[in-house]
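Summary: Need help interpreting a holo structure output

Steps to reproduce:
1. Submit the protein chain below together with the SMILES for calcium ion.
2. Request a joint structure prediction with the ligand placed.
3. Inspect the structure token block that comes back.

Expected: a single structure record containing both the chain and the bound molecule.
Actual: see attached output.

Input attached:
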Amino acid sequence: MHRMCCSCKTICFVIFISTKLICVLSQEHRVMTQSCDGDWVRYGDSCYRYYTSQMRWMDAFKTCQSDNGFLTDIENADEQAFLQNLTDGGEFWIGASDCAGRWLWYGSTQPWGFTKWDTHQPDNFRNNEHCGEIRPHGMWNDFPCSHTRPFVCKRKGGLCVGEPSYFIFLRQNMEYQRRKMLQKISRNADVDQRAQALSVKLRNARQH
Ligand SMILES: [Ca+2]
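--- attached output ---
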């Protein structure tokens, strides 16, 4: 697969490695989100930090993690409007990425739901667009992960990457992988059956 999706394992590995650290910090994290001090801005029960420095998607992802947050998800149109205001209508990375065409919020417990894809997006142009960005006019686009963009990190009050909803996400992901594997096995079994049937026909043909 493309470079980003090959990086899916890397992303999952990074998420797993950081899970314990984030959970350990979660209690402090919750206290911090109550005030959203420093460069963080409150919206609802979450805090957001807009990084104007341009980074590749994965570097932005890691930067948010090192700041006890995650590359922002977007739960609804109101949050999207808040983020567009926070970024002055500019373009920026969000925490959306896909693996084999399945879009997820990486590093977040938020289920994939609200979307605002631009017309004809995501198009996976040249099979190399697997990271989500917000375009200047506020619509979503899949874009090469190796490009650089500003980005927004989010700290979600009262949630932690190690909490039950996170494991629901992991279980769903494992179930998706299991189904794919079963489909592959089923396809291989079908090929084997057809090969055996062909062998029988050939054998019978030779005998006649
Ligand atoms: Ca695109």
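--- end attachment ---

Reviewer comment: Residues 121-123, 125, 129, 141-143 surround calcium ion (CB under 6 Å). The chain has two domains: 3-161, 163-208.
Status: needs-info
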